[in-house]
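Teaching assistant's notes for section 4

Start the section by putting this record on the projector. Ask students to predict, before seeing the second block, whether RNA polymerase sigma-70 factor will look compact or extended. Collect guesses on the board.
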Amino acid sequence: MHLEPSPTTSALADAVSVFVQHRPRLFGIAYRMLGSVVEAEDVVQEVWLRWQRTDRSAVVSPVAFLSSTTTRLAINVAQSARLRRETYIGPWLPEPIDTSADPEVGAQRAEALELALLLVLEKLTPTERAAYILREAFDYTYPEIAEILDLSLVNVRKIVSRARKHLTAEQRENVDTTEHRRLLDAFVSAAQTGNVAALEALLAPDAISLSDGNGIRGAARLPVLGRARVAQLSTATPGFWRGADPRFVEANGRAGVMLHRDGVPSTILTMAASEQGVHTVMWVFSPSKIAAFLDSGSRFTTARGPVPDGG
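Reveal the predicted structure now:
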């Protein structure tokens, strides 16, 4: 005997189908807003729960509803995250994400994804950040952004313009991916061999090194400024490179290096460079962020396949 699916079962299956279709975009918005894989996944999970509870027959545009819910939740989390980061020990860096499977992470283009830019985005208010990300990475129109953020059209245009000016003042023109990989190769080679002069030649005069360890031993608790000091720091501890096994990864659309010790991932090294050389060196020592990076590599395949949890 053939049993017809109940309306409830059918409706839930439709809800799952729609959600899975848009999930990469939702994660992409939340991740750019929060700079955290774990927090972004939490937001997306909460959006799924709300989508289940919503009267979906009354929703004109599912993608608009889901994007709006994701953005508003991410703004709330970003506001509380700012307070939590005040107690963070040493520099805070965004959680790198493995983009080898999806370089754009759910966006129309890979905008607002590189770690150095995510770090600058942290200086904007959560609302400014949301407006910029929706416009530049996801190509939402100004009226759509105004509706999502519950702001006037004029206000949204001003916010996006202000965010662009702020980021333009802070950001430098990046080298292309080929040159970036060459600089990273040369940096690791010089650091491994303790060649301070070669490192200085790669660095911009105002280079900065940021170590994210949240108090972990061996991670610098203050930013290190200047070409000479950054070069010295990168070779200061001979034991750091001895026995380290550097393996290239793709982090946030750019080449990075995962250092392994005894087969265990221990450090992620990424950098940002302009025509003047490497200007920002970023070291992630935090075990939780390394674990999140390793987990993120599989999220692109799983996000498109199975039924979301929490049903």
